[in-house]
Amino acid sequence: MSLFSFARKKQQPKSAQTAKDRLQILLAHERSSSGMAEVDYLPMLQRDIVAAIRKYVPIGETDVDVRMERGDQMSSLEINIELPKIAKSKDG
Predict the structure, then answer these.
(1) Which residue of 3, 59, 68, 81 shows the fewest CB atoms closer than 10 Å?
(2) Three-state SS letters, 1-63
(3) 82 pLDDT above the threshold of 80
(4) What b-and-e string marks burial along 42-65, b requiring 16 or more CB atoms within 10 Å of the CB?
(5) Of the candidates 77, 1, 12, which has an alpha carbon nearest to the alpha carbon of residue 46?
(6) How far is it, in rounded angstroms, from Cα 58 to Cα 88?
(7) Which of 67, 59, 63, 23 is nearest to 43 (CA)?
(8) Which three-class secondary structure state does DSSP give residue 81?
(9) How far, in Å, CA of 78 to CA of 90, rounded?
């Protein structure tokens, strides 16, 4: 191994780029697969959304509805959240 070969050593790809590439492969696989893939992650997505909203507003598991519709050209994710009514303060 010479000094010049060490200087021209090929650099490893950054971990962010590797993660991005893996995510793109995963998304492409999800899009091409049948509707069975959505069954796997929609309940987890709903739980994560409920947990995030609960940090700010008291809501229940049934107050969030997550639906996915797949079409030939486009897929859509619909999220409906029923928020509790906030009582107005007497001061303002």
Answers:
(1) 3
(2) CCHHHHHCCCCCCCHHHHHHHHHHHHHHHHHHCCCHHHHHHHHHHHHHHHHHHHCCCCCCHHH
(3) yes
(4) eeebbeeebeeeeeeeebeeebbe
(5) 77
(6) 17
(7) 67
(8) strand
(9) 36
- The two structure tokens encoding residue 56: 């700010």
Q: Is the pLDDT of residue 64 over 80?
A: yes
57 phi, psi to nearest 5 deg: -140, 135
Please check whether the domain covering 36-82 is classified as CATH 3.30.110.70.
no
Specify the residue for token string 């200087």: 7
Euclidean distance between CA atoms 18 and 26, whole angstroms: 12
